[in-house]
Amino acid sequence: MDDHRAQVEELLADYRRSREQLVAVQRELAAVSGQASSPDGTVTATVDGGGKLASLELSELAYRRHRPEQLAELIVRTAAAAAASAAEDTYKALSTVLPAATDPAALVAGTADLRPSEYETVDRGQQPVRGRVVDDEDNEQRESWLDSELIDRRVR
Question: Which region ranges are annotated with the description Disordered (predicted)?
């Protein structure tokens, strides 16, 4: 009986340690942000852990040095660099709790359990779905079905 009680206590202690570790990682993930500045220093972007733009600073020189379309492109590139920085911090935080063979970037991208052939089409604007890729034809069929449902509801 004491042997079982000791095993249960050990399992509970392991569970508590794992839970504490997950809480610590969750706090670390919540604090992740990324920041980047343009090479000329006229644009600074800060993003949250999900890569969402949190702040954008433009110096007075930004408007003088760059035409509007150039400035827009510089802002996009700088925000992307900030998002990449935040992603690296996210991957580092996750890697402490993932099995050694798990790629944190693939996990965050949602492709960790997919074969490359199942998610390569993401680059062409298609979304991976377990076991198959949703293509434009599937989307058109789904949209037309939804449209007819909406029309039916309005008519009633």
Answer: 117-156
| Residues 89, 51 contacting (CB under 8 angstroms) | no
Residue 30, SS3 per DSSP? helix
pLDDT digits (tens, 9 = 90+) for 2-18: 888 999 999 999 999 98
Cβ-in-10-Å burial (0-12, 13-18, 19+) of 8 comes to exposed
Q: What is the spatial distance between Cα 100 and Cα 107, in angstroms, rounded to a whole number? A: 13
* Entry pTM: 0.64
Q: What is the DSSP string of 92-105?
A: HHHHTTS-TT--HH
| 3-class DSSP state of 32 | coil
**DSSP tag of 120:** G
CB 33 within 8 A of CB 47: yes
Q: What is the pLDDT of residue 151?
A: 46
Note whether 118 and 110 are within 8 A (CB): no
pLDDT at 141 over 50: no
Domain ranges of the chain: 114-156
Integer-rounded Cα Rg, in Å, for the chain is 24
